Amino acid sequence: METFTANMIFNKESVAYKVSVEVKEASSDIKHLSHSGKMRIVIPNDDIKTVWEIRTTPSTINTLVDIVPSRNNRFKLQFDSNMGMEATNSKIAAGFELLIPTEHLKELKVDFLHEYRSDYGRVMFSVIKDQANVVLYDQDYQLLPGSFTFNHKISSMYTEDFIIKFASSYAAMPYLGELKVTWAPYQVITVNTNIFLQRIWNF
Question: What would you report as the CA-atom Rg of the chain, rounded to the nearest whole angstrom?
Fold first, then answer.
């Protein structure tokens, strides 16, 4: 692993500005990249710290940028991707976090997730403002031998939740299924099915 460090000081009108950098690199091959670093900038009335990481393999990508000034602010961006050796196996996750101590907005977080396998899939997106759920979209399914489930949810601080749940079992008769739709605390529709097939022999 190679390490690079640098320290700089600038003076302007008897005021010091300091910058320090440290970079570590284990590999520069784009398919097996390992690069990280940190930087600190000291200026009048502020002390800004930054950390970053980039790591890759033939099937994964991991990146992080985290900037933290001294005034309780924060900017954080993270992205992770895991692509399996097969096209039916993948996962992507991304996150964004912003801290701004103001009257109208103190914290904002945005998250995204996409996961896919031959028997499972999920998509999730959420926005959270000051620990309040602004919007959430979450959908997943699972397919197993003899059964299938599906869930769908949309939630927001401005509207009632909308939820769909479906489950079925067909490994053996009777074939069972249930569908449930909810769009308010007391607004629910439920549908149940029970199917039994019988063969009749005629001689």
Answer: 26
**CA–CA–CA angle 139, 110, 114 (5° rounding):** 35
DSSP codes joined into one string, the chain: -EEEEEEEEEEETTEEEEEEEEEEEEE--GGG-EEEEEEEEEETTEEEEEEEEEEE-SSEEEEEEEEE-SSS-EEEEEEEEEE-SSTT-EEEEEEEEEE---SS-SEEEEEEEEEE-SSEEEEEEEEEETTEEEEEEEEEEEEETTEEEEEEEEEESSS--EEEEEEEE-SSSSEEEEEEEEEETTEEEEEEEEE--------
Cβ(106)–Cβ(100) below 8 Å: yes
Please compute the mean of the pLDDT values over residues 179-183 and round it to a whole number: 94
Query: CB within 8 A of 157, min separation 6: which ones?
Result: 132, 133, 134, 135
Single pTM value for the model: 0.78
Read off the pLDDT of residues 19-56 as tens digits, 9 standing for 90 and up.
999 998 877 677 788 889 999 999 888 899 999 999 98
Average pLDDT taken over every residue of the chain? 87
